[in-house]
Design brief:
The complex is a heterodimer. Chain A is an alpha+beta fold. Chain A has helices at residues 2-28, 56-65, 114-125, 168-173, 182-188, 239-248, 295-304, 307-314, 345-354, 376-389, 401-408, 430-435, 455-466, 470-487; strands spanning 36-41, 70-72, 79-81, 84-89, 95-100, 146-153, 156-161, 202-208, 212-217, 230-235, 253-255, 270-276, 279-285, 319-321, 361-367, 393-399, 418-424, 490-503, 506-507, 523-524. Chain A has three domains: 1-50 and 200-252 and 505-525, Periplasmic binding protein-like II (D-Maltodextrin-Binding Protein, domain 2, 3-Layer(aba) Sandwich); 66-193, Dipeptide-binding Protein, Domain 1 (Dipeptide-binding Protein, domain 1); 279-497, Dipeptide-binding Protein, Domain 3 (Dipeptide-binding Protein, domain 3). In chain A, β8 (202-208) and β9 (212-217) form a beta hairpin. Chain B contains twelve helices and two strands; from the N terminus they run ααααββαααααααα. In chain B, α6 crosses α8 (176-210). In chain B, β1 and β2 (85-86) form a beta hairpin. In chain B, strands 1-2 form a two-stranded antiparallel ribbon. Chain B is mostly helical. Classes of the chains: A alpha+beta, B mainly alpha. The interface between A and B is large, with 72 and 69 residues.
Chain lengths: 525, 315
């Protein structure tokens, strides 16, 4: 027994000493300092080259380091001047001439001028450009309508498009249109993505792999120096750990709070921010073959699914019920008169009876999770239950996200009758143009995986894309939404309400409908 | 001895080549490709084909394997396209972090596991033995990621003794003390199961030895009981314990994946999980080959250590 008691005493002493020593250390480890905002990100960024990346997670950093020629006015998805102070559009909608802002420099000291803008677009679009090999540039097709970009003056740039293309301006406001420093690209080549230089409110300082990206205030920012001294972006991929860091004070801002964790932040120490964005979550229905080839069965599915319950119970209020293919965040193009399909199982049964299919068998593709997909498995099983309640016989097949995209994007023909999908876009043109037109069927290179086809919708979308008058475009989109809702090529389910939590030391924080994170007006005490 | 080591090293070569073929084939066979992962919703067949060409993935499979193997033999593991940096830089940096974590967990499970096993055996069926057996069973039964989450909740969020996650603080100097501060919870969570296993096996190994004649002789000669247990018996039992430690080293290395996710430790396990989800082929392949090589080396070291302790093992 002497052996035991000795050892136990020693072990106790050792444990106590360790705990004390470590506990003492943590006391020295203070809260995050004032003036420095620590943002909990959902993943390590891929690169800080805005032309090379595609993830919203990366955009959250990039929008604070770079500016584009234009940007979205705060709280809207409407374009306003940024690095371009003014612009004109030719009557036929193919020539855009931008006057650039004077006296702006990149963080590396090189001047911002027309040649710099030309360099940016040539690098992305021209395969013979000497720095095209610093890519790949996966989203360069945003600018595939650009035929030429020329410096028509020291501070004047002219874009010539191969056809009128109304979304051009909002594409310029997207991160793919941000302007990088040509000098820095020449200096760093392929490593530019880890040595970024732009004109934005914050200057890149340091990237510690898998730990933090640090940016400091740019005191010479043309739109007024930011209030913060610095921002630190920390990648914390695990949602539970991110929540714990927020509760423990290790981060000041947390984005994409999981619905189940929102309850933790109801107290005084935190503020929950919410903002609906240009996002729509829907089921693609296979209109080519099977039960959903009949419009009545498609409408029946829309009536059968209880979207209110999904939004409130499964997603805990982190989304709103979608009425049609266009999210309400595009306020100028959204049809306010559109009412979502009500939850009406009896009407669904009637429609199925009319169609002569009381128990249609369907195969339903569900994904495990993916960008903008919210909680797809829980949502999928809720939908399965709703559909079965009115007579559908639903078989779910579940795929990991990349596999899922590989199955769904080439089209559902011969495989499935329904598939989950969500899109986040920057212009009301993008989603319907890529996913609802007849000319966007998968074999034509589009995303119309359910083979919806309505010549009226095709004509409206073509015209809306080429009209330069915004009011006319809005009218066309509103008309399109009514027809598409009636034709029900999709089950319109939800529009995601983006959320974020800030600690009580953070002031002036606001989420944008664009889902970007703009920090130049934020204060931290 | 040198011949034995050389033979073991040579036998590792086919193992590593086999691993490189397997990981390459698995990454080629799983559905989804890097271009789709990068493009996400924008992955039209056209865009995917163009990007695959940019990434050099349009060549035949066999050709791609030999290009990869050839480059790797020259020390060029390629470039991760998701992280936009050389694979080897990323892997070695991340592997160091994993070594710190798994190494500490290994030390913890060795020291506490053997100590618990020895104390248990020395007090067979006594109070200490029962208590230790109880805790060992408890430790083995708790999944490490769950234990990690509970530790975060109690010690980081509620008590605020330790930081929630990460390896280094965001602010301040990088001293050994702040590293220990960040290491305490993940290393403990990772070590618990392995400690239990080591304790159980050390206990039975010790019981085996304690029954032998030379122990009775030592006791009869009046050697102090502490010396009998910790000197004579443990030394003899180590021959049986060391192979278990070798297995546990592999266990803490692979278990580190969960712990790295929970504690956001910037290690190679978390890197591989992220890389697989992003279909970052070269990073997955390079990472797996690198980790496998280290594991094979470690096993060779264990075998050599064992043959030093017990010359009969050398074959």
């Amino acid at each position: 027994m002497t052996l035991l008691s000795l050892t136990r005493r020693r072990m106790l002493a050792a444990t106590a000493a360790t705990a004390l020593a470590l506990g003492g250390l943590t006391a020295a480890q203070a809260q995050t300092p004032p003036g420095v905002l620590v943002v909990g990100q959902i993943a390590e960024p891929q690169a800080l080259d805005p032309h090379a990346v595609t993830a919203v997670n990366d955009f959250r950093i990039l929008m604070n380091v770079y500016d584009g020629l234009v940007r979205y006015a705060s709280g809207t998805l409407e374009v306003e001047p940024a690095l371009a102070s003014d612009w004109t559009i030719s009557d036929d909608g193919t020539v855009y001439t931008f006057t650039l802002r004077d006296g702006v420099s990149f963080h590396d000291g090189s001047p911002f001028d027309a040649e710099a803008v030309v360099f940016n677009f040539e690098r992305m679009l021209n395969e013979d450009h000497p720095y095209h090999d610093t890519g790949p540039f996966p989203l360069s097709f945003f600018f595939s309508a650009v035929e030429s970009v020329e410096a028509t003056g020291e501070m004047e740039v002219t874009f010539t498009l191969n056809a009128p293309y109304a979304p051009f301006l909002s594409n310029l406001a997207y991160p793919t249109g941000l302007i990088v420093s040509p000098a820095a690209v020449m200096d760093h080549g392929s490593d530019f993505g880890r040595n970024p230089s732009g004109t934005g409110p914050f200057t890149f300082t340091e990237w510690r792999s898998n730990e933090a990206v640090v940016v400091e205030a740019n005191p010479d920012y043309w739109d007024g120096a930011p209030e913060l001294e610095a921002v630190i972006f920390r990648p914390i991929t695990d949602a539970n750990t991110r929540t714990a860091e927020m509760l423990a004070g290790g981060i000041d801002v947390m984005v994409e709070v999981p619905p189940v964790a929102l309850g933790e932040f109801q107290g005084d120490g935190f503020t929950v921010h919410e903002q609906a964005g240009p996002h729509v979550w829907f089921l693609i229905l296979n209109a080519l073959e099977g039960p959903f080839a009949d419009v009545r069965v498609r409408q029946a599915a829309n009536y059968a699914i209880n979207k209110e319950a999904i939004v409130n119970d499964v997603l805990e209020g982190t989304a709103e019920v979608a009425a049609g293919p266009t999210p309400p965040a595009f306020a100028w193009a959204y049809n306010e008169e559109l009412e979502p399909y009500p939850y009406d199982p009896d009407r669904a049964r009637e429609l199925l009876a009319e169609a002569g299919m009381e128990n249609p068998e369907i195969t339903f593709y569900v994904t495990e999770g993916g960008s903008g997909m919210l909680d797809p498995i829980a949502m999928g099983t809720a939908m399965q239950a709703d559909l079965e309640a009115v007579g559908f016989e639903v078989t779910i097949e579940t795929y990991e996200w990349n596999t899922f995209l590989g199955e769904v994007n080439p089209g559902l023909e011969g495989k499935a009758d329904a598939a989950q999908m969500s899109w986040m876009t920057n212009d009301p043109d993008t989603l319907p143009y890529l996913a609802l037109r007849t000319a966007a069927w998968p074999d034509e290179g589009g995303f119309n995986s359910g083979y919806y086809s309505n010549p009226e919708v095709d004509a409206l979308l073509e015209e809306a894309r080429t009209a330069t008058d915004q009011d006319r475009r809005a009218e066309l989109y509103r008309e399109m939404q009514v027809i598409v809702q009636e034709d029900a090529p999709w089950v319109f389910v939800a529009n995601w309400v983006q959320n974020a939590v800030t600690s009580d030391r953070v002031e002036g924080f606001q989420l944008e409908p664009s889902f970007f994170l703009l920090l130049d007006d934020v204060v931290k005490n | 001895m040198a011949g034995y080591i050389l033979k073991r090293l040579l036998s590792a070569v086919p193992v590593l080549i086999g691993i490189s073929v397997i990981v390459f084939l698995i990454m080629a066979m799983i559905p989804g490709d890097p271009a789709t992962a990068i493009l996400g919703s924008f992955a039209t067949p056209e865009n995917v084909a163009a990007l695959n060409e940019d990434l050099g993935l349009d060549k035949p499979l066999v050709q791609r394997y030999f290009i990869w193997l050839g480059n790797m033999l020259q020390g060029d593991f390629g470039r991760s396209f998701a992280l936009n940096r050389p694979v080897l830089d990323e892997v070695t940096e991340r592997f160091n972090a994993t070594l710190v974590l798994a190494g500490s967990a290994f030390v913890l499970c060795t020291v506490f596991g053997i100590a618990a096993g020895v104390i248990s055996a020395a007090n067979q069926y006594g109070l200490a033995d029962k208590a230790i057996t109880f805790f060992v069973l408890l430790g083995i039964s708790i999944p490490s990621f769950f234990l990690g989450m509970m530790m975060i909740l109690v010690f980081a969020v509620n008590l605020r003794w330790f930081p929630v996650s990460g390896m280094w603080p965001i602010f301040g100097d990088r001293t050994i003390w702040v590293l220990l501060d960040h290491l305490a919870m993940p290393a403990t969570a990772l070590a618990v199961v392995a400690t239990g296993v080591v304790a159980r096996l050390s206990r039975s190994a010790m019981l085996e030895v304690l029954r032998q004649d030379f122990i009775r002789t030592a006791r009869a000669k009046g050697v102090h009981e502490r010396r009998v247990i910790w000197g004579h018996a443990l030394r003899a039992a180590m021959v049986a314990i060391i192979p278990v430690l070798g297995l546990q080293a592999g266990f803490v290395l692979s278990g580190a994946v969960y712990i790295e996710m929970v504690f956001q430790w910037p290690g190679v396990g978390r890197m591989l999980v992220d890389a697989i989800l992003r279909r970052d082929l070269l990073l997955v392949q390079g990472g797996v080959v690198f980790v496998a090589a280290c594991y094979v080396m470690f096993n060779i070291m264990v075998d050599v250590a064992q043959s030093l302790l017990d010359p009969r093992i050398k074959t």
